[in-house]
Automatic annotation (TrEMBL):
Protein name from the UniProt record: Predicted phosphohydrolase or phosphomutase, AlkP superfamily
Keywords: Hydrolase
Entry annotated with the keyword Mitochondrion: no
GO molecular function: hydrolase activity
Amino acid sequence: MDESTMDDGSSLQTLLVGIDAACDRVLAPLFEDNEVPTLESIYRNGTSGALESQIPPWTASAWPSLYTGMNPGKHGVYGFLSFDGYDWDVVNATDVRERTLWELLDRHGVTSVVVNVPVTYPPRAFDGALIPGYTAPEDPDCHPEGVLEDVRGAIGEYRVYPDGDTDDLGTKYSDCVRMRGEAFRYLADRYDPEFGFLEFQATDSIFHKRPDDKAAISAIYREVDRQLNEILEAHEPTNVIVASDHGMGPYDGHEFRINEYLREAGFVETERGGTGMPTWATVRDGNLKEGKDAAEYEPGVAERAMAAAARVGLTSQRLGAILERLGLDDLAAAYAPAGLVSAGATQVDFRASSAYVRSRIELGVRINLEGREPDGVVPPSEYESVRTQLIDALRAVTTPDGDPVFETVGRREEYFHGPESDDAVDIVTVPADFQHFISATLRDEQFGPPSEPWNHKLEGTVAAYGDDIDHAAGVGDAHLFDIAPTVLSTLGVPFDERMDGEPLPCVEAAGTRQYPRLEEDRSIETADEGVEKRLADLGYLE
């Protein structure tokens, strides 16, 4: 270690490094090729193992579970979208109804620096600094006010999202990784925190874009390793914990379009040329999400004409099939405004349907229940019978090869418990071994090839190293919910007795206490077209 780079006065007790989508499948070849020596040394010299994610194992819900230690039924975030009746918005920090790690630490006088963690915009006040990550706008409010400008003044450019003008994914994602590390070091120097939390998102994004681009994947992870090494040298944390929110791997099965199945089974009703919620407009399974942002196109004659055409049967989906046969679908995807596609799509009529899938990454079916939904059509007296009917039907669904589509189909209370459970899907559908891509799109066929060849898996990774880590004790059967109580225990802070996890065996538990739930209003809307387009570009919004 270069002593000239060390901060002798550093107070950093525990550094939590979040590496989105990291897992053995991804890390093993990098370790074998000596691409990430710093990261590998934490695994080799400390203790490590698989980290089971939650249902659903997707970024926007999983990171809040990790940093609250609670299931979505308590913290309230189930995916990238929040719903109010049939209206929706991209989730933000006001949707997280439980206290975060850094807020609990603040109650005990512990300072924190948090950089790039998803669903942390807008930040709430605490002792320290925070630059939000995914679902924040490109120039977000940070904590304290003005800190982002200070960071940019100190390190140069800082972006929440990659530069859209750069075609080289390896370069633009690596640039984001570099910015995260430089921003964290600047803030750690300035605030001298006892806890640091730095998340890298690019390690997930590259697999949604180009899972076979080994050069880009290696470049991104090398930059992660470089930044981690510089942080360790500069601040010498007493403990380092590495954790991912889920794993990543190939989808070798089929795409199952569950709303199409529900339509044919009589549960989903559709409309043509309507508004939908959200838009299920696609050409060749989503490539139109690469087109212009809807905000750049004023609704007008074209949309009205497309909506009228859809009402008589010429929908975006049918037009897309024609364009695909003519070899023109990629051209259309590059130039067609999203608003035009939306106007011409066959969409789920949520108000008229008895059951439907709102968003594919919720991994489940929502029943249009009378008295709960604004225009519910299923009477409460029929709720359980409808739910049982759907569960039995979905359990029996098989692929064209005769294999079960779902590993588990169950009631939501088997997965979610807490005061926010009413926002969950009514029926949870877990794809078999996460080999099948579950889609909410409406197409003429229930099955097709997966829209993304790689996607999320249930098994992530965790590693821990440091003075307060018992390396011989191991991590046991580690779960995502265990990370928050583990981090708190390394800092000697009692964890919330309502947390669903426990400290990992490798740390000494600091005991529990009761903390109050948040009482703040959900008064902030994300309503950012740029955020929505970025999520669509990565396949999170269809």
